[in-house]
Amino acid sequence: MRVSAAARAAIGAALDAIIREEQVAILFAVESGSRAWGFPSPDSDWDVRFVYARPTAWHITLTPGRDTLERSLPGDIDLAGWDARKALNLLLNGNAALREWLRSPILYCADSAMLAEFRALADALPARAAARHHYRAVIRQISSRYLDGRAVVNLKKYLYVVRPALALRWLREHPEGEPPMDMPALLAEVTLDAAARADLDGLLVRKAEAAELGEGARLARLDALVADEIEAAAAMPDEPRDAPGAAAAALALYRRATAHADAVLA
C-alpha cells in the first residue's frame, strides 16, 4: 500500500508532537481503516492507530491517568492510541482490532523489538473464536445502521460488511492462523466464484473513484456471500480462548515497555 511522501511526513510530525507533548514512547504506529484495508476513496481520512508506553514515574500517582490519546488534525489525519497496559489487556481478551493493527500493511513507525514482542504474544494467544464473533458483530452493526432495507447504499459501508464476510470465509477455509487485514490479500486466499468476484471487482473500482459518500446499488451475489458467512460462522465450534502463561507474559512485556519508555524519554 503506497503512502505519499507528504502524508507520511505529516503523520510522522503529528506522532513526534504526541511524543513531546505527552512524554510517551510510541511502540508502533500503523494505518487502519479503508486505506489499510485496500479500498480507499480519493478523499479517505488517514486513520493512524498506535500503542504507546508511559515512563515509570507516570504510574506512581494517586490518580490514574487516561489510557488513550486522540488527535484530529488538518489533512484528514485522525490519530488514536492506546497505552500499552490497555493494549495488552485487550490482546489477552482477543481484541480483533488490535490484532489487525499488528498485521497492518502500512507501518509508520515502530520500535522493532517491541513490535516483534507484541506480535509474538498475539501469535501465542488463541483468537480465532474471538475473531469470528468480532466480524459477525461488525457485519450486523454496519448492516443495521446503513444497509438494511435499502436498495442503494453507501459503497464504503457496503465494503465494510463484505470485508469481514471474506475474513469469516478465510477462517472457515483455513484451519489455522488469522485472515489478512487487507482486501487484496484476502481475495488471494479465499474461494470465490467468478461471478461474485467480478461483482466485487466492479464494486472496488467504483469505490476507488467515488467520494466517501458515494452510493451504488446492492449486489445480490455479494449480499448472499455475507448472509452465507454469517450463518456458517454461527455453526462453527468455539476454539479455546486461553493460553497457559499468557497473563504473565503480557505483564512482563508491559514492564519491558515501561522500561523502554524510561530509557527513550530520559
From TrEMBL:
Protein name: Nucleotidyltransferase domain-containing protein
PANTHER family named in the record: NUCLEOTIDYLTRANSFERASE
Phylogenetic placement of the source organism: Bacteria, Pseudomonadati, Pseudomonadota, Alphaproteobacteria, Acetobacterales
Domain of life: Bacteria
Organism the protein comes from: Plastoroseomonas hellenica
